[in-house]
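DM between two lab members

TW: hey, do you still have the LysR family transcriptional regulator entry open?
JB: yeah, one sec
JB: this one, 299 aa:
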Amino acid sequence: MDVVSALRTFLRVAQTRSFSAAAIDLNLTQPAVSRQVSALEAHLRTRLLHRTTSALALTVEGEQILPMALRVVEAVEALSEASGTEGATVSGKVRLSLPTPLGLFIGDRLARLLESHPSLAVDLILREEPSDLVADAIDLEVRLGPVGDSSLICRRIGWTTAFLVASPCYLEGRDTPRAPQDIRDHRCICYSRAGDGRSWSFSDGADDVVLRVEPRLVANNSMAVHRATLAGAGLAVLSHILAGPDIEKGRLVKVMPDFPPTRLPINVVYPTRKNMPLRVTTVLDFLVQSVRDDALMAA
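TW: and the structure you got?
JB:
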């Protein structure tokens, strides 16, 4: 039995929770995937997956083996790349998790990366909350703000830029806020990423002002906040990626420019820097350069 191949198949089944989906990803038949996993279980003398007609789940032993299997496969891939020619082919699939605005930003730019590397595939995952990188088989994830998990490799690649905005129809007939305390007289739309979303932080260049707001609308997706703001539902703090084009076209108005929202670090996290496959380092380099090419995130 090819243990490395079986481990690679097990990882894909664990990630997709489906033999048929793993078979498609690996360009194998479903019976072949099932045979490889069964052979691996026989080799390790333990059951790795619970199988029913309607569901698939990892056993306790499967959960324990998952990170070790990932390290073995990554080490073998790194060995193959190191022993190859200088122009080694970038191939395989990379799972990249991003907050929605940055996911849209990167999605607009992925075509040139994929064109440069025909054998590379990217799973772009737009996720508002942090992932379990190992359990979800995530290769790279971008997180905004401090990263609390000290077991992960964390690399800061830029800074967020956001604006307090509202639609012209909402502001019509109302006093436009000039300082954070003025916001209390307005309807607010809050984005609840990684928390309750009911505290906004602004900076005058020297100090941060944290304001507790009482929102009329809370959403756990930034696109929903964006659309509600365009519709005139109230004030919102939006990434420049979402708000910038609407500000240019006059569909949104930048409010309180002397007190912009506090900037947050943009961090990319990954399980380990050891034996990173060429496919992962290629996507990481592309991600870093894309963020640095945007003046509002690079500074």
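TW: got it. The chain has a mean pLDDT of 88. Residues 219 and 225 are 6 Å apart (CA to CA).
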